[in-house]
Design brief:
The complex is a heterodimer of chains A (335) and B (631). In chain A, a hairpin with a 5-residue loop joins β8 and β9. By secondary structure, chain A is an alpha/beta fold. Chain A has two domains: 11-232 and 267-313, Thiamin diphosphate (ThDP)-binding fold, Pyr/PP domains (Rossmann fold), CATH 3.40.50.970; 239-266, no CATH class. In chain A, the strands form two sheets. Chain A has an eight-stranded mixed sheet, sandwiched between helices. A three-stranded antiparallel sheet of chain A has the order 8-9-10. Chain A contains eleven helices and twelve strands. The radius of gyration of chain A is 22 Å and the shape is globular. In chain A, α1 (28-38) crosses α6 (181-193) and α3 packs across α4 (107-116). Chain B has 631 residues and is an alpha/beta fold. Chain B has three domains: 16-240, Pyruvate-ferredoxin oxidoreductase, PFOR, domain III (Pyruvate-ferredoxin Oxidoreductase, domain 3); 252-438, 3-Layer(aba) Sandwich (Rossmann fold); 522-629, 3-Layer(aba) Sandwich (Rossmann fold). In chain B, α1 packs parallel to α6 (175-186), α9 packs parallel to α14 (397-412) and α11 runs parallel beside α12. The radius of gyration of chain B is 27 Å and the shape is globular. Chain B starts with 15 loop residues before the first strand and ends with a helix. Classes of the chains: A alpha/beta (335), B alpha/beta (631). β2 of chain A pairs parallel with β17 of chain B.
């Protein structure tokens, strides 16, 4: 066990001396800065933070944090992190990943870390493009994306990381954006507080290969009409005057101007089935406002706690003894 | 605890005892006939009786291939002896065949004049047809060269268990115990071990407590089989295989996979590091996962990952966090782990990777043995990526080598590959139980802050290991990863001088382990002109073949390698002394390539990939052929 540092931690304690090599204007800078601002507020000793990443621009993140960090291989960060957390549950483990790393090459690990409710805080930088390999389309790129590997436009249908996470039974699922650091800080803090696997999708801008890809919905001029801020227990309303709201129409959500108080849906991040979160995850620009905030936040059994409980029960019942182990079963003696 | 046996057999028999030194029996039947249990029980009784032994299970990859077909035949071979033996035997002295397909698949291995025990119920016209045989071997004279013993074992079993209330198919299922009883009589084995086992497995204290008829009927079948053999004039005599003169001590039977489990648990205890085992089920390595999962009382965490990559990645994560990270798999799983093994090499973390080799390429022969992953684990990664490679030589040796792999991993901060194979993993032999106190502690490179500026890649001057600073340690926060690291500091570095220097350091670290492993030992006729070099699981057959060749007037020396990278430091010196070097291996020449590449010498191979271990007789005749006819 470690003891808390005498001096309270500050943002500076988490800044690494390494020179940052992201492109000027990259959305990653604000995510890094927000993270460095949030960690000192969590009451966790600095040595107990671990940042694990895969491959991609976002995955350079651990080098820029003055914490324990592990820059692993493409897509495997959730699996490496699982071993870290299971070996030392006192650690708070953050996974830094991108849309290619988490949803394409690492899709399997992403699904299963969420399914197990492994206590990992997964921050998925979604810029809808492959940056580090110079601009190919990604699993979240829209149909028709022109890129070096799709000069005539991409044919693939994209997927929603939020829908995918909910489908994998994730208990905490949220979305925020790189241009709203206050909101991002609140979402990161909620993810840190959650016991289990927390997925946060950050809408992040790649200035080089997909500049302004999120601008149509998260840009400041239109944001009030094109984003919907999810708040637990509050009506799902948006618009400059909050004049629009979400209502149910048979099996579909509809955006309606001037709905009645009774018909506007109320956000409930604790909704047990996950259906409300899933409906919200399907809302996409331009037909709908893009929801940001916490989609789902429900308690689920935490993986490492279950594993540890089995170990502790076994140890209490039958303390380890090599002598007993070797001599178990049938034995015989040669005189 | 065991219920008393109602029918105690063992009427003082008047039939003669004949003493024999060694016997090889193969039990063969349909996958659903319980041949693996029968073989295991015969083995356990022989072990407890005090014979030396070696076993070889042989089962299909399919769980239940169509009943009665050759594809569905499952077999278990045991060689037991009053002498020190190292192989499961070449030719069979006895073949038990529960049906026509089992006969067809195994008869070629039965010695001329050998005993053939057949269940007549498995030779109906339908069975003959399913086995795709042209005529009924019971009547067509094709078995004339053997001592055929026919009995309707199925019917005898049904009658024997009638009073327990078991009928039809359920009653028939006891026929393997009836057969086992017959073989116990023939080889003068006591029944008590198996009777006790049946109680422990199916008795009143188990989940079968509401079905007492299961234990009861199998016990009845066993004793009835024994009495049947004693009473009926099927056998004229029975055989005695005396206790083997093994070194003094306490023994147990152990399979290679069990020994691997014990070795890993021991290494964890001796290093004080928690054992983390990340694994994805794969034949023939899954028994290591099953085994370790039972020992949570040792603090073991077993993690059945979503795939082979996650299995090794989670183990690397554990190693990073201070665990003894271990993963095990077979060839196809290694293919998927190679990239992560490279990450282990680059980040210099302690990790044990066990490869229980099977026939390949691709899915290959899942349940059959081979030694064809050597070059893959040596070189199958991007870049120059050296890591130590060890190979266990027998089931019991898996214990020592699993511990050794962990020792090297922890001492040198490196991933280590341990090669075993399907043959030694599933095969069993007597194992002298060690005194846990006599097994040395394992020192690790764990570090706490000493006030100095921490450098993640500063090396120990002797072992060249870097420090193991694990998350949770105040003041030692640092970053590692798969990008090339600057010397000492461990910061990301791409410059040419540094990459050369770090590549050299990685090589030198692994090469230096040669100073910390046993020297190669020359066995057989050291003064011969020819040297046989074997490695891994072929030790038993090759050393027996060398002994026989030497006895037969063909002088050969023998070196067996358990360390493939680095090689023992005296290997070059030994090779210089011989004119000819012959490498028998269950692949098309992988160690041969390594040796000729490394030492620049011509090497001849004896190569076989038939999914089975070598036969001693094959090796002896090959040695004669090579040494007497070729120059």
């Amino acid at each position: 066990m470690t003891t808390a540092t005498a001096e309270p931690l500050t943002r500076k304690d988490f800044a690494s001396p390494v020179g940052i090599r992201w492109c000027p204007g990259c959305g990653d800078y604000s995510i890094l800065s927000t993270m460095q601002g949030i960690l000192p507020t969590l009451g966790i000793p600095k040595e107990n933070f671990v940042f694990v990443s895969g491959i991609g621009c976002s995955s350079r993140f651990p080098y820029y944090m003055n914490t324990y960090g592990f820059h692993t291989i493409h897509g495997r960060a959730p699996a490496v992190s699982s071993g870290v957390k299971l070996t030392n549950p006192d650690l708070q483990v953050w996974v830094i990943t991108g849309d290619g790393d988490a949803l394409s090459i690492g899709g399997n690990h992403f699904i299963h870390a969420l399914r197990r409710n492994m206590d990992l805080k997964i921050i998925l930088f979604n810029n809808r493009i492959y940056g580090l390999t110079k601009g190919q389309y990604s699993p979240t790129s829209g149909v028709g994306t022109v890129s070096p590997s799709t000069p005539f436009g991409s044919v693939d249908q994209p997927l929603s990381p939020i829908s995918m996470a909910l489908g994998a039974e994730a208990g905490f699922v949220a979305r925020t954006s790189d241009n709203d650091v206050k909101h991002m800080g609140e979402v990161f803090a909620a993810a840190a507080a959650y016991k289990g696997a927390a997925l946060v999708e950050v809408l992040q801008n790649c200035v080089i290969f997909a500049d302004k890809v999120h601008e149509p919905y998260y840009g400041r001029p239109t944001r009030n009409d094109t984003l919907l801020y999810l708040k637990h227990g509050e009506p799902l309303r948006f618009g400059k005057e909050m004049e629009k709201g979400l209502v149910m129409d048979k099996f579909a959500m509809k955006a309606k101007t001037n709905p009645t108080e009774a018909e506007v849906l109320i956000h409930d991040e604790k909704e047990a089935s996950g259906a409300l979160g899933f409906y919200l995850s399907r809302l996409a620009h331009p037909e709908y406002p893009v929801p940001v905030g916490v989609f789902r936040n429900v308690e689920r059994p935490v993986y490492h706690a279950g594993v540890r409980a089995q170990v502790e029960t076994a140890q209490a019942k039958n303390p380890p003894s090599l002598d007993k182990l070797f001599n178990s079963g049938s034995t015989w003696t040669v005189e | 605890m065991s219920t008393p046996v109602t029918e105690v057999p063992i009427n003082p028999t008047e039939k003669a005892h004949i003493d024999v030194e060694s016997v090889t029996i193969r039990f063969a039947g349909d996958s659903g006939d319980g041949m693996q249990i029968t073989g295991t029980q015969f083995t356990d009784s022989s072990a407890v009786f005090g014979n030396d032994l070696a076993t070889m299970p042989d089962f299909p990859a399919e769980i239940r291939a169509p009943a009665g077909t050759v594809a569905g035949v499952s077999a278990y071979q045991i060689h037991f002896s009053s002498l020190d033996i190292k192989t499961p035997g070449d030719d069979l002295n006895v073949l038990v065949a529960m049906n026509a397909a089992a006969l067809k698949a195994n008869i070629a291995d039965l010695e001329e004049g050998g005993i053939l025990l057949l269940d007549e119920a498995g030779f109906t016209d339908k069975d003959i047809e399913k086995a795709e045989m042209k005529s009924n071997p019971l009547t067509d004279g094709s078995l004339d060269g053997y001592r055929v013993i026919k009995a309707n074992i199925t019917e005898l079993t049904i009658n024997a268990v009638k009073e327990t209330g078991l009928k039809g198919k359920s009653a028939e299922l006891c026929k393997n115990f009836f057969t086992l009883g017959m073989m116990y009589w023939l080889y003068d084995r006591p029944l008590n071990h198996t009777l006790k086992w049946l109680d422990e497995k199916y008795g009143p204290k188990t989940k079968y407590k509401d079905k007492p008829e299961i234990a009861e009927s199998n016990k009845k079948a066993l004793t009835a089989g024994y009495n049947f053999a004693d009473t009926v004039e099927l056998f004229t005599s029975h055989y005695r295989v005396k206790k083997a003169a093994l070194p003094k001590g306490k023994y147990r039977k152990i399979s290679g996979n069990e020994a691997t489990v014990f070795g890993l648990l021991t290494a964890a205890q001796k290093s004080g590091r928690p054992l983390f085992y990340g694994s994805y089920p794969i034949t023939p390595a899954s028994d290591i996962l099953h085994g370790l999962s039972r020992y949570k009382n040792f603090g073991v965490i077993t993690f059945q990952a979503e795939d082979e990559i996650a299995a090794i990645a989670s183990s690397i994560g554990s190693a990073y966090a201070g665990g003894l990270g271990v993963t095990a798999t077979s060839g196809p799983g290694i293919c998927l782990k190679l990239e992560a093994m490279g990450l282990g090499v680059m980040t210099e973390l302690p990790l044990v990777i066990v490869d229980v080799q099977r026939g390949g390429p691709s899915t290959g022969l899942p349940t059959k043995t081979e030694q064809s992953d050597l070059l893959m684990v040596m070189f199958g990664r991007s870049g120059d990526s050296p890591l130590p490679v060890l190979a266990a030589r027998s089931p019991g040796d898996c214990f020592a080598m699993a511990y050794e792999a962990a020792r090297i991993a922890l001492k040198y901060m490196t991933p280590v590959v341990l090669l075993t194979d399907g043959y030694i993993a599933n095969g069993a032999e007597p194992w002298m139980i060690p005194d846990p106190a006599s097994i040395p502690e394992i020192k690790t490179n764990l570090v706490q802050s000493d006030g100095e500026a921490f450098q993640a890649y500063a090396r120990d001057p002797i072992t060249m290991a870097r420090k193991w600073a694990i998350p949770g340690t105040p003041g030692l926060e640092h970053r590692i990863g798969g990008l090339e690291k600057a010397r000492n500091t461990g910061m990301v570095a791409y410059d040419p001088e540094n990459h050369q220097a770090m590549t050299n350091e990685r090589h030198a670290k692994i090469a230096g382990i040669a100073n910390d492993i046993p020297l190669a030992e020359v066995m057989g006729r050291a003064d011969a002109d020819a040297l046989v070099i074997s490695w891994g699981g072929t030790f038993g057959t090759v050393s027996t073949a060398v002994e026989e060749a030497n006895k037969g007037g063909l002088p050969v020396a023998h070196v067996h390698l358990q360390y493939l990278n680095p090689f023992p430091r005296n290997l070059g010196e030994i090779l210089d002394k011989y004119d000819r070097v012959i490498v028998p291996e269950l692949n098309m020449g992988q160690l041969r390539l390594l040796l000729s590449g490394r030492f620049g010498i011509p090497v001849q191979g004896i190569n076989q990939v038939r999914g089975k271990p070598f036969k001693v007789s094959f090796l002896v005749s090959e040695l004669h052929r090579i040494l007497e006819t070729q120059k």
